[in-house]
Amino acid sequence: MNEISIIEAVKILRSKNKNIAFIDVRKRQKYVQGFAFGSINCEVAKLNHHLIDLVPNTKTTILLIGVENETNKKKIFKVLNKFSFKNYFTIRGDYNEWIKNRLPFWKGEYTFSKAFGEWVEKSSNIKNIFPDELKKIHKKNNFFQIDTRPKSEFEKFSLPFSHHCSGGELPIFLNNNLNINKTYIVHCAGRTRSIIAYQTLKDFNFKNKKFVLNGGTQNWVLSGYKRVYNNKSKLNKTKINLVKDLNLSKEISKKFKIPASFKSVHDPDNYFFQINSEIKNFQNIKGWRNLNATTLIQNTDKFIASTLSKIFVYSFVPSSSLFSVIWLRRMGYNAIWQVKKPRSVNRKYQPIKIDPTYFFPKRHLGNKNHSRGYLNWEHSLIPTINRWGCRYPWISANNFNLKNPENIIYKVYRNF
Fold first, then answer.
1. Residue 151 binned pLDDT confidence (cut-offs 50, 70, 90)
2. Which of 118, 285, 342, 409 sits at 20 to 30 Å (Cα–Cα) from 367?
3. Contact 255, 261 (CB under 8 A)
4. Which of 200, 225, 220 is nearest to 210 (CA)?
């Protein structure tokens, strides 16, 4: 195992033109309590099954942290060699050196995506509404309220009067002239997915008056109101027009200068995502990881670890794949809209298991202290990045030019 100094490790992280994967191999429960900025968690015990999914190109430079002991080092070495990785390094002194040198260190679950959501609110004109105000609006008939989480979450609990549609299908769901004159109110359980949904309505040129419910269902409970349980999504009854959706997607792709792919055959060293639909069941394409668009954006570090590898995204619903590409490029990834239906790829994926919630774990169970703590944590993310000397971690959400994305890892570590 190649061991390098902390100075050499930071030099790698500053390398703007080097494809890097920064992997923390500690157990998830320990990782979420504090980790090196930019590191993606993949426990030693899971490397054999998930590393090649997280890092599909074996030429990627892998920097490892949280190795902790020689036994783990041998296990890691065995997996890296199994998949023919050549450029990999551990850090001399590991986390002791990291903390001693006061390098970027934070905590949380899906922290990168959460921070990005906060940035979107800061850099765009997101209009919030608070639970007391929403309660008054519920007495009127001129609103259309949408829970933007996936179906499985919506059917556990939601808010009174909420319809279901996760963010990735909002364009085709709303592009049918229904509720066209109503005020849109979007919410999730917290903040990130509703902020993304609001911005998506702007991105796809919906002119309706719109609001984000500040703090989502958590803030609703904190304000003394009750959620509703055992909801049933009616999304599959939506009438969709795929031709109209494709025309809208082409218009929006030009607006944001999105790279598109029309070829059907690809090098397997890339990432491949097929965005599924909760409106209609479509065929699964072999070798393309099938998942919900909002899940990909909300939980990016479960699926992507490399900074420069190409990410091809396809969906039978064009706007869903374009939605994903827009957001991945905003986050600094090299995502490409796969317009033409692709052929299968020689790739197999290990199923992603949902991790137990370790960070403020009772926040969705009605625990007000955990809900407050979690919402305060989300608000702290951008100020923390700013304190590291990075004032503009991503481009403004109002910037239409997504031609040249730049990963935040390089932007932060150039200050150290």
1. very high
2. 118
3. no
4. 200
| Residues forming a β-bridge with 371 | none
Between CA 88 and CA 59 the distance in angstroms is 10
| Segments of 102-168 assigned E as strands | 105-106, 128-129, 143-147, 157-158, 162-164
Q: Which residues of 319-341 are buried (b: 16+ CB within 10 A; e: fewer)?
A: bbbbbbbbbbbbbbbbbbbbbee
Is residue 374 within 8 Å of residue 363, measured between CB atoms? Answer: yes
- Closest by CA to 154, choosing from 145, 144, 164, 146, is 164
Please answer whether residues 41 and 301 qualify as being in contact, where contact means their C-beta atoms are separated by less than 8 angstroms: yes
Q: Which two tokens stand for residue 104?
A: 């970027």
Residue pLDDT, tens place only, 173-204: 998 666 668 899 999 999 999 999 999 999 99
The answer to whether 189 and 216 are in contact (CB under 8 A) is yes
Cα 288 from Cα 265, distance rounded (Å): 12
User: Comparing C-alpha atoms, which of 91, 37, 85, 36 is closest to residue 63?
Assistant: 91
Residue 14: pLDDT band by 50, 70, 90 thresholds? very high
CA atoms of 53 and 9, how far apart (whole Å): 23
- The percent of the chain in helix, strand and coil, each rounded to the nearest 5, is 40, 15, 45
Pairing of strands 40-41, 20-24: parallel
The DSSP code sequence of 163-192 is EE--GGGHHHHHTTSTTTTSEEEEE-SSSH
- What single letter denotes the amino acid at residue 79? V
Alpha-carbon gap, residue 43 to 47, rounded angstroms? 6
Closest C-alpha to 189, from 166, 160, 158, 229 = 158
Long-range contacts of range 151-154, CB-CB < 8 Å, 24 or more positions apart? Answer: 151/233, 151/235, 151/278, 153/189, 154/231, 154/233
Domains of the chain and CATH, by start: 2-109+364-413 (3.40.250.10), 116-237 (3.40.250.10), 242-338 (3.40.250.10)
Distance CA 386, CA 26 (A): 27
Q: What is the pLDDT of residues 331-375, one digit of tens each?
A: 999 999 999 999 999 999 988 887 899 999 999 888 999 999 999
What is the rounded distance in angstroms from the CA atom of residue 382 to the CA atom of residue 352? 28
DSSP 8-state symbol, 127: P
